């Protein structure tokens, strides 16, 4: 069974050590777009206060939106009928037995290293 370290190695292990952050993030975007199964449920775990979303909100994640530093990969999500774009770093997949959980956790472990 794959683990977080295996996923990180698969996604960026083949790139040169001096790759810039956008090259690395592009590899993650490609990997996640190809491997995540959308939509999926995730909990918003905010590192900062937002007026509309609160830590603990359950969201439906619909797709990868973009990647912008310093936020990393941004995801299109919905809370009820309202749409938002939030950093993947601030989401926790609710189905801990899914591949989506493993892939998102691998990204979250890797992201602070760039």
Description:
The chain has 114 residues and is α+β, with helices and mostly antiparallel strands. It has one domain (4-113). It is built from three helices and five strands, in the order H-H-E-E-E-E-E-H. It has helices at 4-12, 21-35, 99-110, and strands at residues 40-44, 58-68, 72-79, 82-87, 91-93. A five-stranded antiparallel sheet has the order 4-3-2-1-5. A hairpin with a 2-residue loop joins strand 3 and strand 4. Helix 1 (4-12) crosses helix 3. The two termini are 26 Å apart. The model has no long low-confidence stretch (mean pLDDT 94).
Q: What is the count of helical runs?
A: 3
Mean pLDDT: 94
Distance between the termini: 26 Å
Please state the structural category: alpha+beta
Q: Which stretches are poorly predicted, pLDDT < 50 over at least 5 residues?
A: none
Summarize the amount of helix as a percent range.
Answer: 25-40%
What's the total count of β strands? 5
Tally the structural domains.
1
Which quaternary structure do these chains form?
single chain
Task: Describe the strand arrangement of the main beta sheet, using strand numbers.
Answer: 4-3-2-1-5
The Rg value, from CA coordinates, equals 14 Å
* Secondary-structure element order, N to C: HHEEEEEH
- Form type: globular
Beta-strand content estimate = 25-35%
Largest sheet: 5 strands, antiparallel
List the helices and strands and how they pair.
Elements: H1 4-12, H2 21-35, E1 40-44, E2 58-68, E3 72-79, E4 82-87, E5 91-93, H3 99-110
Antiparallel strand pairs: 1-2, 1-5, 2-3, 3-4
Helix pairs in contact: 1-3
């Amino acid at each position: 069974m794959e683990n977080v370290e295996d996923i990180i190695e698969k996604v960026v292990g083949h790139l040169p050590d001096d790759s810039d952050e956008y090259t690395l993030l592009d590899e993650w975007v490609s990997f996640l777009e190809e491997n995540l199964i959308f939509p999926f449920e995730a909990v918003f775990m905010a590192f900062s206060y937002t007026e509309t979303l609160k830590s603990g909100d359950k969201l439906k994640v619909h797709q990868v939106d973009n990647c912008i530093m310093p936020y990393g990969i941004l995801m299109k999500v919905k809370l009820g009928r309202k749409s938002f774009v939030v950093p993947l770093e601030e989401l926790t997949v609710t189905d801990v037995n899914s591949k989506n959980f493993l892939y998102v956790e691998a990204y979250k472990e890797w992201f602070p290293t760039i």
